Amino acid sequence: MAIKDRMSGNEAVAHAIRQINPDVMPAFPITPSTEIPQYVSSMIANGEIDTEFIPVESEHSSMSAAIGASAAGARTLTATSSCGLALMWEVLYVAASNRLPIMMEVVNRALSGPININAEHSDSMGARDCGWIQIYAENNQEAYDNTLQAYRIAEHASVKLPVMICQDGFITSHAVENITLLEDEPVKRFVGTYEPEHYLLREDESMAVGPYAVSCYCMEAKRAQAQAMINAKDVILQVAREFEAISGRSYGFFEEYRLEDAEYAIVAIGSVCGTIKEAVDGLREKGCKAGLLKVRVFRPFPGEEMAAALKHCKAIAIMDRCEGYNSVGGPLGAELTAALYRVKAVSEVVNITYGLSGRDVKVSDVEVVYDGLEKLAQGENCFGEYPYIGLRSADRAE
Amino acid sequence: MTLKAEFINEKTSWQDLTEGLQIHEPATSKLFETGEWRTSTPVWEKDKCKQCLLCVPYCPDTCILVSEDRRGEFDYAHCKGCGICAKACPFGAITMKEGE
Amino acid sequence: MRTLTEIRWHGRGGQGAKTAALLLADVAFNMGKHVQGFPEYGPERMGAPITAYDRISDYPIRVHSNIYEPDFVAVVDDTLLHTVDVTMGLKEDGAILINTLKKKEEIIPLLNGYKGKVFVIDARRVCMETLGKYFPNTPMLAAIVKVSGLMEEDAFLREMESSLKHKFAKKPEVLEGNMRALKMAFQEVY
Description:
heterotrimer, A: alpha/beta, Rossmann fold, 5-stranded mixed β-sheet, 14 strands, 18% strand, C: alpha/beta, Pyruvate-ferredoxin Oxidoreductase, domain 3, 6 helices, 6 strands
């Protein structure tokens, strides 16, 4: 029986954590993810779960403690945002290279500076190459569903990698919306118990974790780790199929919204995708063949699959909620453009930066992008040399 | 199935290494004969030795093995010849000799 | 027919405008609606102007932007009228509700020529007479329900009673005070 409820994105993932009842949660508070360890602490205090909560003095410590707990054999999670994630930088790589299936709830927030607490993907995008799986959510429902699937992916024998479950700070983390929850028992059956083969607290086996690797071993270790990320693709789809069987909700690497026959497509990540869908429906009524590709899984990067879904479009806008500071554009733009090149797509492609530091995106902003795509397909580029939307500019209305 | 440490070497392929290079068995350092690195060698002069065992904890590589409260010969397979034991011995019972 | 009601709340940090928005979303959810209740944070400090929003509809809500053309606006603190353009984008066939000690005639000139309906309530008086403490949320919630016509007043009161009973199971006197505040607010808003 599905349970109809309403809750914020942070409450939703805390609810999922209660249902999973992980073993250990070290965490340090930072806006806008602070509520997650707060909710979990309350659940522990109320005896609803027996997770061991470790208060630490920084995020470097929370991730280090998570690594220790996970290596010891505990199902482990933490939560963070923005500068907290940045402070974990060094140890994020250690978690991944030691193949520890830690889950981290990332509530996306701008990295400083200027210092700002609002939604942006610069934090997790900055950590995109540290070996963690990254799954993004459009709303509270997806944040909940992705959390329930996280350990099944991370702990899979062919993967064994940590996973970030990302949602947009405030926009979904603090917005109360309708949600459909699963009952505890089917969740527990789906997630299962964690039974690692090798772990530090195993009584009948001595083990060393994280040994120094000289050059003649280190490159091989990294290639093996890369294989785990490649293997994660099949596992993500398999877990999604099993999740659909218990929830009725279908997930893949990405969602195609009216994309099949679309001439103009936007590719985006996170909460803005709901706003884009609203714009797409309005434009379709007016006869504009608009479509959306909503990226759910960014790591592993499903470039080939995305390019195949997009290559029929006349013009594509790849939207980044993250400034790349590379003089070209954002990370999604760079990687997806490369993927489109590999399938020899002839679509016009523009990479647009939007929504930095919580800058709001309205349906009308999205309509402007589709309008620009129509013009782009006819050879007129009105996006400018360095495309931004929602920006005040002395040059022109961007 | 992961390989035992004794079968892992510089020719092992990436597919055959353990995940994260984890080591799932104890005392694998025994397999690594660091004695090959030695350019100067400690010599134990038994007649000067009082069996005080001060050299034992000083040895960074656990190459002075103790049995029934008495030390024996150096483990030359692993002794790197660092000379700390010779410095630590109060009785001049350990001297360093050039070469292996 | 897709119906959507959008409400914008203006308050100051610490006054509970966010809580009021979330409470309204709660009540609407309990009455079978699709809801979205969310705050917009600036500086997270007591007294700083804050905005919160409600979307209430009979179909799933996907848009994740702020509300620029609300059907209704609720102002928890009338000192904001001097610093915040509270009627910005407010639909002329909508309405604005203001918590104030002033009379409606005194408030209207402060609304930048807004031509729609204006409602006022002295939430402080309602609170002091029913709760003995100033919690403007409770009367503001009832007042916005009346002003917006989002739900039947009786159904709203029944829903509030059942959720407050659950919330204050160990403090029945709090339940009674809150219910009186809601009913009095229905009478006092004009």
